[in-house]
Amino acid sequence: MTSTSAQLEFTGRRRRRIILAASAGNFAEWYDWGVYGVVATLLATQFFPSGDAVTGLLNTYAVFALGYLARPLGGIVFGRIGDKHGRRRAMSLTVLVTCGGTAAMGLLPTYQQIGLFAPLLLVLCRMAQSMGAGGEYASAISFVYEHSPARRRARNVAQLVASTFVGIMTGSVLARITSAVMSRESYEAYGWRILFLVAVPLALMGVYLRRRVEETPEFEELARTRRKTAVEAAPLRSTLRQQWPAMLVLLVCTASYALISTTITSYLTTFLIDVGGLATDQAYNATVLSNLAVIAATLATGVLCDRVGLRRTLTIAGCVVAALAVPSLALAASGLAGGLVGVVLIGTCKGLLALPALLALSVIFPVTVRVTAGALAYNVTQAAFGGTGPIIGVWLNDSTGGPYGLGIYLTVLAVSTVAGSIAGRRIFDRRFAEAALPGPAEGPATTDAQTGQKEQHI
Protein backbone atom coordinates (compact mmCIF):
# COMPACT_ATOMS: atom_id res chain seq x y z
CA MET A 1 0.00 0.00 0.00
CA THR A 2 1.38 3.42 -0.89
CA SER A 3 1.42 6.34 1.47
CA THR A 4 -1.11 8.11 -0.73
CA SER A 5 -3.69 5.37 -0.54
CA ALA A 6 -3.04 4.91 3.17
CA GLN A 7 -3.93 8.47 3.98
CA LEU A 8 -6.77 8.66 1.48
CA GLU A 9 -8.38 5.89 3.51
CA PHE A 10 -7.94 7.66 6.85
CA THR A 11 -11.67 8.12 7.26
CA GLY A 12 -14.48 6.22 8.91
CA ARG A 13 -13.66 2.70 9.99
CA ARG A 14 -9.90 2.87 9.36
CA ARG A 15 -9.56 6.12 11.27
CA ARG A 16 -11.41 4.67 14.27
CA ARG A 17 -9.32 1.49 14.14
CA ILE A 18 -6.00 3.36 14.16
CA ILE A 19 -6.97 5.76 16.93
CA LEU A 20 -8.48 2.89 18.95
CA ALA A 21 -5.31 0.82 18.66
CA ALA A 22 -3.13 3.68 19.86
CA SER A 23 -5.62 4.72 22.53
CA ALA A 24 -6.25 1.21 23.91
CA GLY A 25 -2.62 0.68 24.83
CA ASN A 26 -2.35 4.25 26.02
CA PHE A 27 -5.42 3.75 28.23
CA ALA A 28 -3.94 0.57 29.70
CA GLU A 29 -0.59 2.13 30.50
CA TRP A 30 -1.99 5.27 32.08
CA TYR A 31 -4.65 3.44 34.03
CA ASP A 32 -1.70 1.73 35.68
CA TRP A 33 0.02 5.05 36.18
CA GLY A 34 -3.02 6.62 37.82
CA VAL A 35 -3.65 3.76 40.23
CA TYR A 36 -0.33 4.33 41.99
CA GLY A 37 -1.26 7.90 42.84
CA VAL A 38 -4.77 7.02 43.96
CA VAL A 39 -3.58 4.45 46.53
CA ALA A 40 -0.42 6.32 47.55
CA THR A 41 -1.60 6.88 51.13
CA LEU A 42 -2.33 3.16 51.53
CA LEU A 43 0.99 2.13 49.97
CA ALA A 44 2.78 4.26 52.54
CA THR A 45 1.42 1.98 55.28
CA GLN A 46 2.04 -1.27 53.37
CA PHE A 47 5.63 -0.84 52.18
CA PHE A 48 7.31 1.38 54.77
CA PRO A 49 7.82 1.25 58.55
CA SER A 50 4.92 2.53 60.64
CA GLY A 51 5.43 5.94 62.19
CA ASP A 52 4.89 9.51 61.04
CA ALA A 53 2.25 9.63 58.29
CA VAL A 54 3.95 12.48 56.41
CA THR A 55 7.26 10.58 56.37
CA GLY A 56 5.56 7.47 55.01
CA LEU A 57 3.85 9.48 52.29
CA LEU A 58 7.12 11.19 51.39
CA ASN A 59 8.75 7.76 51.08
CA THR A 60 5.97 6.62 48.76
CA TYR A 61 6.41 9.66 46.55
CA ALA A 62 10.19 9.26 46.68
CA VAL A 63 9.65 5.85 45.07
CA PHE A 64 7.39 7.62 42.56
CA ALA A 65 10.18 10.11 41.80
CA LEU A 66 12.84 7.38 41.48
CA GLY A 67 10.64 5.67 38.93
CA TYR A 68 10.79 8.77 36.78
CA LEU A 69 14.55 8.41 36.50
CA ALA A 70 13.93 5.34 34.34
CA ARG A 71 11.74 7.25 31.91
CA PRO A 72 14.58 8.83 29.87
CA LEU A 73 16.17 5.38 29.59
CA GLY A 74 12.86 4.00 28.38
CA GLY A 75 12.63 6.87 25.92
CA ILE A 76 16.05 5.99 24.50
CA VAL A 77 15.39 2.24 24.29
CA PHE A 78 11.89 2.38 22.84
CA GLY A 79 12.64 5.52 20.84
CA ARG A 80 15.39 3.65 19.01
CA ILE A 81 13.01 0.79 18.35
CA GLY A 82 10.33 3.18 17.10
CA ASP A 83 12.68 5.07 14.77
CA LYS A 84 14.55 2.00 13.55
CA HIS A 85 11.96 -0.80 13.48
CA GLY A 86 8.65 1.03 13.46
CA ARG A 87 6.17 2.85 15.67
CA ARG A 88 3.86 -0.18 15.91
CA ARG A 89 6.54 -2.49 17.31
CA ALA A 90 7.57 0.07 19.92
CA MET A 91 3.96 0.53 21.03
CA SER A 92 3.41 -3.21 21.49
CA LEU A 93 6.51 -3.51 23.68
CA THR A 94 5.82 -0.45 25.84
CA VAL A 95 2.40 -1.67 26.90
CA LEU A 96 3.82 -5.05 27.96
CA VAL A 97 6.62 -3.53 30.03
CA THR A 98 4.47 -0.92 31.77
CA CYS A 99 1.57 -3.24 32.57
CA GLY A 100 3.98 -5.98 33.66
CA GLY A 101 5.53 -3.68 36.25
CA THR A 102 2.11 -2.61 37.46
CA ALA A 103 0.76 -6.16 37.78
CA ALA A 104 3.87 -7.13 39.74
CA MET A 105 3.05 -4.43 42.31
CA GLY A 106 -0.18 -6.25 43.03
CA LEU A 107 1.79 -9.36 44.01
CA LEU A 108 4.46 -7.77 46.22
CA PRO A 109 4.78 -8.78 49.88
CA THR A 110 4.53 -5.94 52.40
CA TYR A 111 7.08 -4.42 54.78
CA GLN A 112 5.65 -6.45 57.65
CA GLN A 113 6.35 -9.63 55.66
CA ILE A 114 9.84 -9.08 54.20
CA GLY A 115 11.10 -5.85 55.73
CA LEU A 116 13.29 -3.54 53.63
CA PHE A 117 13.00 -5.78 50.59
CA ALA A 118 9.41 -4.55 50.19
CA PRO A 119 10.26 -0.94 49.26
CA LEU A 120 13.19 -2.19 47.16
CA LEU A 121 10.90 -4.41 45.08
CA LEU A 122 8.41 -1.55 44.84
CA VAL A 123 11.16 0.62 43.36
CA LEU A 124 12.05 -2.03 40.78
CA CYS A 125 8.40 -2.39 39.72
CA ARG A 126 8.04 1.38 39.47
CA MET A 127 11.15 1.61 37.32
CA ALA A 128 9.82 -1.06 34.93
CA GLN A 129 6.51 0.78 34.76
CA SER A 130 8.34 4.04 34.09
CA MET A 131 10.55 2.61 31.36
CA GLY A 132 7.51 1.48 29.40
CA ALA A 133 5.74 4.79 29.93
CA GLY A 134 8.91 6.55 28.78
CA GLY A 135 8.48 5.16 25.29
CA GLU A 136 4.69 5.14 25.09
CA TYR A 137 3.70 8.73 24.44
CA ALA A 138 6.21 9.56 21.72
CA SER A 139 5.52 6.26 19.91
CA ALA A 140 1.73 6.46 20.08
CA ILE A 141 1.55 10.16 19.23
CA SER A 142 3.89 9.70 16.26
CA PHE A 143 1.74 6.77 15.13
CA VAL A 144 -1.49 8.80 15.10
CA TYR A 145 0.21 11.97 13.84
CA GLU A 146 1.80 10.23 10.86
CA HIS A 147 -1.42 8.47 9.92
CA SER A 148 -3.45 11.70 10.04
CA PRO A 149 -4.12 14.24 7.27
CA ALA A 150 -2.59 17.63 8.07
CA ARG A 151 -5.87 19.43 8.68
CA ARG A 152 -6.91 17.00 11.48
CA ARG A 153 -3.64 16.12 13.17
CA ALA A 154 -4.21 18.06 16.38
CA ARG A 155 -7.77 16.77 16.78
CA ASN A 156 -6.74 13.17 16.20
CA VAL A 157 -3.84 13.44 18.65
CA ALA A 158 -6.22 15.10 21.12
CA GLN A 159 -8.41 11.97 21.06
CA LEU A 160 -5.34 9.85 21.82
CA VAL A 161 -4.25 12.16 24.65
CA ALA A 162 -7.79 12.14 26.07
CA SER A 163 -7.59 8.35 26.31
CA THR A 164 -4.75 8.87 28.78
CA PHE A 165 -7.02 10.77 31.11
CA VAL A 166 -9.84 8.28 30.62
CA GLY A 167 -7.41 5.61 31.82
CA ILE A 168 -6.35 7.66 34.82
CA MET A 169 -9.99 8.43 35.65
CA THR A 170 -10.87 4.75 35.39
CA GLY A 171 -8.22 4.03 37.99
CA SER A 172 -9.82 6.57 40.31
CA VAL A 173 -13.33 5.20 39.71
CA LEU A 174 -12.29 1.59 40.31
CA ALA A 175 -10.49 2.60 43.48
CA ARG A 176 -13.66 4.33 44.64
CA ILE A 177 -15.86 1.35 43.81
CA THR A 178 -13.47 -1.17 45.33
CA SER A 179 -13.14 0.76 48.57
CA ALA A 180 -16.93 1.20 48.74
CA VAL A 181 -17.96 -2.42 48.22
CA MET A 182 -15.26 -3.92 50.44
CA SER A 183 -14.76 -3.53 54.15
CA ARG A 184 -11.87 -1.32 55.18
CA GLU A 185 -9.96 -4.30 56.51
CA SER A 186 -10.39 -6.29 53.30
CA TYR A 187 -9.49 -3.33 51.08
CA GLU A 188 -6.30 -2.65 53.01
CA ALA A 189 -5.43 -6.34 53.16
CA TYR A 190 -5.88 -7.28 49.49
CA GLY A 191 -8.44 -5.07 47.76
CA TRP A 192 -5.86 -2.55 46.61
CA ARG A 193 -3.97 -5.35 44.86
CA ILE A 194 -6.92 -5.95 42.54
CA LEU A 195 -6.44 -2.45 41.10
CA PHE A 196 -2.91 -3.33 40.00
CA LEU A 197 -3.74 -6.82 38.70
CA VAL A 198 -6.32 -5.37 36.30
CA ALA A 199 -3.25 -4.39 34.27
CA VAL A 200 -2.96 -7.96 32.92
CA PRO A 201 -6.12 -8.04 30.76
CA LEU A 202 -5.59 -4.43 29.77
CA ALA A 203 -2.11 -5.26 28.48
CA LEU A 204 -3.39 -8.18 26.44
CA MET A 205 -6.09 -6.01 24.91
CA GLY A 206 -3.60 -3.28 24.02
CA VAL A 207 -1.16 -5.65 22.33
CA TYR A 208 -3.94 -7.40 20.39
CA LEU A 209 -5.32 -4.14 18.96
CA ARG A 210 -1.91 -2.69 18.15
CA ARG A 211 -0.76 -5.73 16.22
CA ARG A 212 -3.83 -5.58 14.00
CA VAL A 213 -3.03 -2.16 12.48
CA GLU A 214 -0.48 -1.27 9.80
CA GLU A 215 2.65 0.82 10.16
CA THR A 216 2.48 4.55 9.39
CA PRO A 217 2.95 5.71 5.76
CA GLU A 218 5.81 8.05 6.72
CA PHE A 219 7.79 5.33 8.44
CA GLU A 220 7.17 2.86 5.59
CA GLU A 221 8.55 5.44 3.15
CA LEU A 222 11.54 6.04 5.44
CA ALA A 223 12.17 2.27 5.67
CA ARG A 224 12.14 1.97 1.87
CA THR A 225 14.66 4.79 1.61
CA ARG A 226 16.93 3.11 4.13
CA ARG A 227 16.79 -0.17 2.25
CA LYS A 228 17.68 1.53 -1.05
CA THR A 229 20.56 3.53 0.40
CA ALA A 230 21.79 0.78 2.76
CA VAL A 231 22.44 3.38 5.47
CA GLU A 232 22.30 2.15 9.06
CA ALA A 233 19.84 4.09 11.21
CA ALA A 234 21.38 5.95 14.15
CA PRO A 235 18.49 7.87 15.73
CA LEU A 236 20.11 8.56 19.11
CA ARG A 237 23.34 9.88 17.60
CA SER A 238 21.44 12.08 15.15
CA THR A 239 19.21 13.34 17.95
CA LEU A 240 22.08 14.38 20.21
CA ARG A 241 24.04 15.98 17.37
CA GLN A 242 21.29 17.83 15.52
CA GLN A 243 18.14 18.15 17.61
CA TRP A 244 19.37 19.60 20.89
CA PRO A 245 18.06 23.17 20.22
CA ALA A 246 14.54 21.86 19.60
CA MET A 247 14.85 19.53 22.61
CA LEU A 248 15.84 22.46 24.83
CA VAL A 249 12.84 24.47 23.65
CA LEU A 250 10.56 21.52 24.33
CA LEU A 251 11.97 21.09 27.85
CA VAL A 252 11.33 24.74 28.76
CA CYS A 253 7.86 24.78 27.21
CA THR A 254 6.60 21.54 28.76
CA ALA A 255 7.97 21.84 32.32
CA SER A 256 4.65 23.27 33.51
CA TYR A 257 2.76 20.37 31.95
CA ALA A 258 5.13 17.89 33.58
CA LEU A 259 4.32 19.37 36.98
CA ILE A 260 0.58 19.77 36.56
CA SER A 261 0.18 16.31 35.02
CA THR A 262 1.63 14.59 38.09
CA THR A 263 -0.12 17.02 40.44
CA ILE A 264 -3.49 15.74 39.20
CA THR A 265 -2.50 12.16 38.39
CA SER A 266 -0.67 11.24 41.55
CA TYR A 267 -1.05 13.96 44.16
CA LEU A 268 -4.44 15.63 43.85
CA THR A 269 -6.34 12.99 45.82
CA THR A 270 -3.80 13.16 48.64
CA PHE A 271 -3.83 16.97 48.50
CA LEU A 272 -7.61 17.14 48.85
CA ILE A 273 -7.53 14.80 51.86
CA ASP A 274 -4.50 16.18 53.71
CA VAL A 275 -4.76 19.89 52.86
CA GLY A 276 -8.40 20.36 51.86
CA GLY A 277 -9.78 18.23 54.67
CA LEU A 278 -12.05 16.17 52.40
CA ALA A 279 -13.12 12.66 53.27
CA THR A 280 -11.63 9.90 51.15
CA ASP A 281 -14.79 9.34 49.10
CA GLN A 282 -15.20 13.07 48.52
CA ALA A 283 -11.61 13.32 47.34
CA TYR A 284 -12.07 10.41 44.93
CA ASN A 285 -15.22 12.00 43.48
CA ALA A 286 -13.46 15.34 43.09
CA THR A 287 -10.56 13.65 41.28
CA VAL A 288 -12.99 12.07 38.81
CA LEU A 289 -14.59 15.48 38.20
CA SER A 290 -11.15 16.98 37.60
CA ASN A 291 -10.35 14.31 35.01
CA LEU A 292 -13.62 14.99 33.20
CA ALA A 293 -12.55 18.63 32.95
CA VAL A 294 -9.16 17.52 31.60
CA ILE A 295 -10.77 15.38 28.89
CA ALA A 296 -13.15 18.13 27.77
CA ALA A 297 -10.39 20.76 27.68
CA THR A 298 -8.03 18.46 25.76
CA LEU A 299 -10.57 17.75 23.02
CA ALA A 300 -11.49 21.43 22.72
CA THR A 301 -7.82 22.42 22.52
CA GLY A 302 -7.31 20.01 19.62
CA VAL A 303 -9.86 21.96 17.57
CA LEU A 304 -8.22 25.24 18.56
CA CYS A 305 -4.74 24.02 17.66
CA ASP A 306 -5.77 22.91 14.16
CA ARG A 307 -7.09 26.43 13.61
CA VAL A 308 -4.48 28.75 15.17
CA GLY A 309 -1.31 26.62 15.24
CA LEU A 310 0.78 24.87 17.85
CA ARG A 311 2.84 27.78 19.19
CA ARG A 312 -0.11 30.11 19.69
CA THR A 313 -2.06 27.38 21.44
CA LEU A 314 0.87 26.71 23.78
CA THR A 315 1.22 30.43 24.54
CA ILE A 316 -2.48 30.76 25.35
CA ALA A 317 -2.36 27.70 27.59
CA GLY A 318 0.67 28.98 29.49
CA CYS A 319 -1.00 32.34 30.14
CA VAL A 320 -4.17 30.71 31.45
CA VAL A 321 -2.28 28.37 33.78
CA ALA A 322 -0.09 31.20 35.10
CA ALA A 323 -3.23 33.17 35.97
CA LEU A 324 -5.18 30.30 37.56
CA ALA A 325 -2.53 28.16 39.31
CA VAL A 326 -2.63 29.83 42.73
CA PRO A 327 -6.41 30.57 42.84
CA SER A 328 -7.36 27.05 41.73
CA LEU A 329 -5.18 25.32 44.33
CA ALA A 330 -6.38 27.74 47.01
CA LEU A 331 -9.98 26.88 46.15
CA ALA A 332 -9.18 23.17 46.11
CA ALA A 333 -7.91 23.48 49.68
CA SER A 334 -10.98 25.33 50.98
CA GLY A 335 -13.40 22.50 51.65
CA LEU A 336 -15.90 20.59 49.54
CA ALA A 337 -17.62 23.39 47.58
CA GLY A 338 -14.43 25.31 46.85
CA GLY A 339 -12.62 22.04 46.25
CA LEU A 340 -14.99 21.06 43.44
CA VAL A 341 -14.54 24.41 41.72
CA GLY A 342 -10.80 24.27 42.24
CA VAL A 343 -10.36 20.80 40.77
CA VAL A 344 -12.37 21.75 37.68
CA LEU A 345 -10.07 24.76 37.14
CA ILE A 346 -6.96 22.63 37.68
CA GLY A 347 -8.28 20.00 35.28
CA THR A 348 -9.03 22.62 32.65
CA CYS A 349 -5.50 23.99 32.98
CA LYS A 350 -4.05 20.52 32.51
CA GLY A 351 -6.17 19.87 29.42
CA LEU A 352 -5.15 23.18 27.86
CA LEU A 353 -1.47 22.35 28.31
CA ALA A 354 -1.66 18.65 27.46
CA LEU A 355 -2.48 18.79 23.75
CA PRO A 356 0.11 21.37 22.60
CA ALA A 357 2.83 19.97 24.89
CA LEU A 358 2.35 16.42 23.59
CA LEU A 359 1.66 17.31 19.96
CA ALA A 360 5.01 19.12 19.95
CA LEU A 361 6.76 15.75 20.41
CA SER A 362 5.95 14.94 16.78
CA VAL A 363 5.68 18.37 15.20
CA ILE A 364 9.11 19.80 15.96
CA PHE A 365 11.19 16.72 15.14
CA PRO A 366 11.78 15.10 11.71
CA VAL A 367 10.50 11.62 10.92
CA THR A 368 13.96 10.01 11.11
CA VAL A 369 14.35 10.73 14.84
CA ARG A 370 10.81 11.69 15.81
CA VAL A 371 10.25 9.07 18.52
CA THR A 372 13.78 9.17 19.97
CA ALA A 373 14.06 12.96 20.15
CA GLY A 374 10.51 13.46 21.38
CA ALA A 375 10.73 10.72 23.99
CA LEU A 376 14.14 11.79 25.30
CA ALA A 377 13.27 15.49 25.65
CA TYR A 378 9.84 14.81 27.10
CA ASN A 379 11.04 12.25 29.63
CA VAL A 380 13.98 14.30 30.84
CA THR A 381 11.45 17.06 31.51
CA GLN A 382 9.10 14.63 33.23
CA ALA A 383 11.92 13.28 35.39
CA ALA A 384 13.07 16.77 36.41
CA PHE A 385 9.69 18.39 37.03
CA GLY A 386 7.04 15.66 36.98
CA GLY A 387 8.70 12.99 39.09
CA THR A 388 9.55 15.49 41.79
CA GLY A 389 6.12 17.19 41.67
CA PRO A 390 4.29 15.16 44.34
CA ILE A 391 7.19 15.08 46.81
CA ILE A 392 7.79 18.83 46.36
CA GLY A 393 4.06 19.38 46.74
CA VAL A 394 3.95 17.45 50.03
CA TRP A 395 7.03 19.31 51.29
CA LEU A 396 5.80 22.78 50.26
CA ASN A 397 2.37 22.27 51.74
CA ASP A 398 3.74 20.75 54.94
CA SER A 399 6.22 23.63 55.28
CA THR A 400 3.81 26.47 54.51
CA GLY A 401 0.65 24.97 55.93
CA GLY A 402 -1.25 25.76 52.73
CA PRO A 403 -1.36 25.35 48.95
CA TYR A 404 0.34 28.59 47.95
CA GLY A 405 3.90 27.28 47.64
CA LEU A 406 2.92 24.66 45.06
CA GLY A 407 0.70 27.19 43.26
CA ILE A 408 3.53 29.70 42.94
CA TYR A 409 5.86 26.96 41.70
CA LEU A 410 3.36 26.04 38.97
CA THR A 411 2.92 29.71 38.06
CA VAL A 412 6.66 30.14 37.53
CA LEU A 413 6.79 27.12 35.24
CA ALA A 414 3.73 28.33 33.30
CA VAL A 415 5.49 31.66 32.70
CA SER A 416 8.46 29.69 31.37
CA THR A 417 6.08 27.96 28.95
CA VAL A 418 5.02 31.31 27.54
CA ALA A 419 8.61 32.56 27.39
CA GLY A 420 9.80 29.35 25.72
CA SER A 421 7.06 29.42 23.09
CA ILE A 422 8.02 32.98 22.21
CA ALA A 423 11.79 32.40 22.28
CA GLY A 424 11.40 29.20 20.26
CA ARG A 425 9.15 30.81 17.71
CA ARG A 426 11.31 29.91 14.72
CA ILE A 427 11.41 26.23 15.67
CA PHE A 428 7.68 25.96 16.32
CA ASP A 429 6.50 28.00 13.34
CA ARG A 430 8.89 26.42 10.84
CA ARG A 431 8.08 22.86 11.85
CA PHE A 432 4.34 23.48 12.11
CA ALA A 433 4.29 25.15 8.69
CA GLU A 434 6.13 22.14 7.20
CA ALA A 435 3.69 19.75 8.88
CA ALA A 436 0.75 21.69 7.43
CA LEU A 437 1.97 21.39 3.83
CA PRO A 438 -0.42 19.37 1.65
CA GLY A 439 0.04 15.75 2.64
CA PRO A 440 -0.94 12.58 0.84
CA ALA A 441 -4.61 13.09 1.66
CA GLU A 442 -4.61 16.54 0.06
CA GLY A 443 -1.75 16.60 -2.42
CA PRO A 444 1.74 15.25 -3.10
CA ALA A 445 3.57 13.77 -0.16
CA THR A 446 6.23 15.92 1.45
CA THR A 447 9.20 14.13 3.01
CA ASP A 448 12.32 15.26 4.80
CA ALA A 449 14.33 14.48 1.68
CA GLN A 450 12.11 16.69 -0.48
CA THR A 451 12.33 19.64 1.87
CA GLY A 452 16.08 19.34 2.21
CA GLN A 453 15.94 18.36 5.85
CA LYS A 454 16.92 14.71 5.66
CA GLU A 455 19.06 13.63 8.58
CA GLN A 456 22.71 12.77 8.15
CA HIS A 457 21.89 9.34 9.59
CA ILE A 458 18.57 8.20 8.19
TrEMBL record:
Annotated transmembrane regions: 58-78, 157-178, 190-209, 246-268, 288-305, 317-346, 352-369, 376-396, 402-423
GO molecular function terms listed in the Swiss-Prot or TrEMBL record: symporter activity
Membrane topology: Multi-pass membrane protein
Keywords, ordered alphabetically: Cell membrane, Membrane, Symport, Transmembrane, Transmembrane helix, Transport
Polar residues biased stretches: 447-458
Subcellular location field: Cell membrane
Primary localization class, coarse: membrane
Annotated spans, Disordered: 438-458
GO terms under cellular component: plasma membrane
Residue span, Major facilitator superfamily (MFS) profile domain: 18-432
InterPro entries referenced in this protein's UniProt entry, alphabetically: H+-coupled_symporters (IPR051084), MFS (IPR011701), MFS_dom (IPR020846), MFS_trans_sf (IPR036259)
Name of the molecule in the record: Major facilitator superfamily (MFS) profile domain-containing protein
